[in-house]
Automatic annotation (TrEMBL):
Keywords: Coiled coil, Membrane, Transmembrane, Transmembrane helix. It comes from the Eukaryota. The chain crosses the membrane at residues 47-67, 154-175, 278-300, 376-400, 420-438. Residues 445-475 form a coiled coil. This is Uncharacterized protein.
Length: 475
């Protein structure tokens, strides 16, 4: 009978309670509510402000994760000699029983490579939050009028968008490290199989003998009293690792089968990898669209037919835009601009095949085609941002949540305070905002008089600032 057996394992830090199912779904609901109440002021501020705060926390965690990423494992790797167990072994029982007790048993080899490491499953939740927050920026900046009413409000919203972009880049760069996590192993007595998920009870330094994992593993199982000091049924080298922002005791280990709620990364990751290029391409496309629409808004061109990246302005001037585009097309087709050209100049224009060819290849013709192409490109970007981007957000959320679903069971149920407390906080915030919205209806005459006096003083200051700026512009 073998002294001990090796079994493939998954070591991971579960998703933190702040990113668990209820807070994440609440975040999605807040973004949806922000889009649905975009024409209001105070409601949009409450919903979007809370969502931005939550997503900002995730973005900063993405910064920390990418900054703490190590090129090499913090704990040195090493080969461990193991008893060679044939694939048809019975382990003093039936073959079926052996497969049930050790479903990820390592067979037909006499050594394994031990590289202690653990999956950081917060990376999945952080990716879902920051990328969703960034994708929502496209439809919001095109549809919401409230965000455009004040420069300070729009600046704040743009800074949040930049934070989401930076967080998305860091999360996407860090995310592939999960697939490159080395394979982990657990070592057990054949007659004491593990019960299921094991929690890290804290690493005891005495179990690590010199720098050799081979000596450490054999030293535990050759001495029964040392094995009893473990506190676990199996020996987990990954329990000797640590992760920034995490308590070491929150790490869990489970046999790499996925039958008990754990993730079988070796099987599931292959299916996820097929969609990863689309996710990266989606973020890159949204970055391009954001840049184009912001460029149109902040650096308007006098020659462009598109007056703004705002949907209601484009819709209001749709006839004027359409007429202008048709005029540009005819001018480009003719090879010359018809704007500001007199009849006498038109009469002197060269006619015939030679004249048309010269006009078609002229610098003026190329400029006209380029102007028309840029306007059409801006319109396509605007249409995609308005129509397609909401469906893109929905598709991404469904995909990433399906992926997170395979990260294992939640740490807390919805009934526990860590899950429902954010929802209660939002409710209290809404009540407070509603009361402040009705403050004038509830105010006394004295309070109204004080408010009028303060408003007059503010009005005088604003008029003074306006006059000073007008004088500065004239100068």
């Amino acid at each position: 009978m073998a002294l001990f057996v090796a079994q493939e394992a998954i070591c991971a830090y579960p998703i933190s309670t702040i990113y668990d199912t209820c807070p994440r779904y609440l975040f999605y609901a807040l973004l949806l509510a922000s889009c649905a109440t975009r024409w209001t002021g105070w409601l949009a501020d409450v919903f979007l402000g809370t969502a931005a705060t939550y997503a900002g926390t995730a973005a900063f965690q993405a910064f920390i994760l990418i900054a703490s990423r190590r090129g090499k494992p913090s704990v040195p790797a090493g080969l461990v000699s193991i008893p060679n167990i044939p694939s048809n072994t019975t382990l003093d029982a039936t073959a079926a029983a052996a497969a049930d007790l050790f479903p990820a048993l390592v067979t037909d080899t006499d050594e394994v490579q031990v590289t202690p490491a653990a999956l950081e499953l917060d990376a999945d939740a952080v990716l879902a939050i920051v990328v969703t927050g960034y994708l929502v920026f496209l439809p919001l900046q095109c549809w919401s009028r409230v965000l455009r009413q004040q420069n300070a409000r729009y600046l704040l919203f743009s800074l949040w968008n930049a934070l989401m972009l930076a967080g998305s880049v860091c999360a996407l760069v860090y995310w592939p490290t999960l697939s490159r996590t080395p394979r982990q192993y657990m070592f057990c007595y054949p007659d004491f199989p593990p019960d299921g998920t094991e929690y890290n009870g804290g690493w005891v330094a005495s179990f690590r003998r010199s720098d050799s994992w081979n000596e450490s593993v054999w030293g535990v199982f050759e001495n029964r009293s040392r094995w009893e000091e473990l506190g676990d049924l199996c020996f987990y080298p990954c329990f000797n690792t640590s992760q920034i922002l995490r308590q070491q005791t929150t790490m869990v280990a489970v046999a790499a089968t996925g039958d008990d709620g754990g993730v079988h990364r070796h099987l599931f990751w292959g299916r996820v990898e097929d969609f990863k290029p689309y996710v990266y391409a989606l973020v890159v496309l949204c970055v391009i669209l954001n840049f184009v629409l912001l460029l149109v808004e902040f650096v308007p061109s006098r020659r462009s037919r598109i007056p703004s990246s705002r949907v209601w302005i484009v819709w209001k001037k749709r006839k004027q835009i359409w007429t202008g585009l048709k005029c540009d097309f005819r001018s480009a087709l003719a090879g010359e601009s018809t704007e500001g050209v007199t009849d006498e100049a038109k009469a002197r224009t060269k006619k015939g095949l030679r004249g048309r060819i010269q006009r078609a290849v002229s610098i003026q013709s190329l400029k006209l085609w380029l102007r028309l192409a840029i306007d059409i490109f801006i319109l396509i970007c605007l249409i995609f941002s308005v129509v397609v981007s909401p469906f893109t957000v929905i598709a991404f959320v469904i995909w990433i949540e399906y992926y997170i679903h395979h990260d294992g069971p939640n740490q807390e149920s919805p009934q526990q305070i860590g899950q429902w407390s954010p929802l209660l906080a939002i409710g209290l915030l809404l009540i407070s905002a509603a009361i402040l919205k009705l403050k004038y209806r509830m105010a006394s005459v004295k309070e109204i008089d004080c408010e009028i006096a303060d408003t007059k003083q503010l009005l005088n200051r604003l008029e003074t600032m306006k006059n000073e700026r007008e004088k500065g512009n004239e100068a």
